[in-house]
Amino acid sequence: MQFRTIKTKLLLLFVPVTVIVLVISAFVITHSVKTTVQNLVEKETNEKVTVMEMMVEEWLTGIKNQVYYLANSSMAKSMKPENYLTAFAEVVKNSNGLFDYILLANPGGDYINREGAVANIKDRDYHKDIFVLRKNVSVSNALISKGSGKPIIVIAYPVYGENNALVGMVAATVNIESMSNRISALAYAEGEFALVVDGTGMTVAHSSDPNLIMSLNVLHSEQKGFIGLEEAGTNMTKGEAGASSYKNPDGGTYQLFYKPIPGTSNWSLGVGVLETNITAKSGSLVVLLFITFGILIVVVAVVAYIVGIVVTTPIKEVGKELKRFGELDFTKTVSKADAFLDRKDEIGQITVGLSKMVGEVRST
Questions:
Q1: CA-to-CA distance for 267 and 75, rounded, in angstroms?
Q2: Structural domains in the chain?
């Protein structure tokens, strides 16, 4: 291919310019696509966090209502074991494992335990919440039940007697495995999970890894190989909403979106999304974009080549006639260039002028 031909020059003009324009456009659009996809993922995940947070709040509210009802019942207000022990035991029995135990303690912290003996819980935070801080309700952080060995929380309500005097406290130990079961039952994308942490940073529910329940504390997670999770954990235990990036022990990088759970002591629910899943969504669009641009470059090159042929073919024929005229060869009376006489463009004008010139020379 000779670089002095019009076809070549058209290709060298249109193709590089097209490539430059498309490359610049590709970078701009790629950045825009990645930003848009990131924003969409954040929006979808935050919506999922909100739905789950409402679900956990609803779960807690339902339990609170049951305990509140017991604390305001006449059997609890009587403070007589013969009035409430059997009824409380029935509630536990019919709770499908939700309640581990329900007790009624006096202001001194004494209550009847599972074995029927008197025990004391005055040193427990929920006892202090009700009798010292005079809270209307107390929701503890997670702990392991000494009776069942399962992870539990304690929800306590005050019991008021005559003249609105604070006479006792109903405390229900709640099996929080049911909370994990609820969030695990939801649909998750590959590489996505949900977790709930209490006010101390302890993981009390996890949708995909039950081994982390009561094992992973997000405030001390780096020692278990979770790099960067402690920053999110600090915000979560402060009752803040937000998003943070961290690395799992297996090296996977996750975006964790979290939100506080109302009615708790700084509990928080979070949804983790594998970052490669986010980039994969934008990556497929970017690949499609570059394929499209590649096709456009080929199309432009083909069009430029065809245009070159269309433009140069009549010029070549006119050029042959000019060369023949320059050699003073007037023997041919019919030329391929005559086909361009009716054209209204520059080629037609040149052909008409050449034809007149040849005619005048012949007539002399």
A1: 32
A2: 6-27+289-363 (no CATH), 37-59+179-280 (3.30.450.20), 63-176 (3.30.450.20)
Identify how many contiguous H helices and E strands the chain contains and give both numbers: 8, 12
Q: In 10 A of CB 85, how many CB atoms?
A: 16
pTM: 0.66
Q: What is the pLDDT along the chain (364 residues), one digit of tens a residue?
A: 445 566 676 667 767 777 787 778 777 776 676 677 667 767 777 788 888 888 888 889 999 999 999 999 999 999 999 999 999 999 999 999 899 999 999 999 999 998 889 999 999 999 999 999 999 999 999 888 877 778 899 999 999 998 899 999 999 999 988 888 888 887 777 888 999 999 999 999 999 888 999 999 999 999 999 999 999 999 999 999 999 999 999 888 999 999 998 888 889 999 998 887 766 666 666 677 778 877 877 787 777 777 767 766 666 666 666 666 665 555 555 455 555 556 666 666 666 666 666 666 656 6
Burial 230-262 (b: 16+ CB within 10 A, else e): bbbbebbbebebebbebbeeeeeebbbbbbbbe
Q: How are the residues of the chain apportioned to helix, strand and coil, as percentages rounded to the nearest 5?
A: 55, 20, 25
The tokens 């029927």 sit on which residue? 116
Q: Is 16 helix (H, G, I), strand (E, B) or coil?
A: helix
